[in-house]
Amino acid sequence: MSPAPIPEESTCTRIIHLEDMRFFAGHGVHPSEAATGHWFRVDVSVRLPGIGGATPMTKPGGDRLEDTLDYEKVYAVASRVMATPRSLLETLAGEILESVRRLAPDTVAVRVRVAKLHPPFPGPCGLVAVEMAWPEPDDRKL
Asked: Which of 34, 63, 132, 137 has the highest count of CB atoms within 10 angstroms of its CB?
């Protein structure tokens, strides 16, 4: 038995996730970090405005890239930002967040997490990460 169609007056949440993007780069406050480089992991989540039950993607002639956020553009933003050396993970996360917001002016919320994998600490540490969210985290929508 098929589920009932979503009524026109309801809305569907659209959250796009790009997870586990990996970049090798020389970010860090110590000169040795820039010289040797490290692997970084970037996760980006973008919430777009709700859409009616009959979404543009399910209507005849739908299924068009223009009706959503182009994931490749989000990846390109992360790649571009990660290619420019920075001292702080906070700077990287903030630049990615602001650039993604500019990709889709109707964005409702964005969350970015940048992690340095196996940071150069004296003991074992899998990663250190910074997460930034817009709007403020107390108003979580992702």
From this structure: 132
Strand partners, 23: 40
pLDDT at 79: 98
Cα separation values, 82 from 27, 36, 92, 118, Å: 8, 15, 7, 17
Q: CA-based angle 38:44:47, to the nearest 5?
A: 175
Q: Domain extents for the chain?
A: 11-139
Predicted TM-score (pTM) of the model is: 0.83
Tokens of 117: 């994998």
- The DSSP call for residue 142 is -
Tokens read off for 29: 């406050």
Q: Which residue has the tokens 């809305």?
A: 11
Question: Where does 11-139 sit in CATH, by number?
Answer: 3.30.1130.10
Model pLDDT for residues 55-74, shown as the tens digit of each residue: 555 555 567 777 788 999 99
Distance between CA atoms of 75 and 96, rounded to whole angstroms?
10
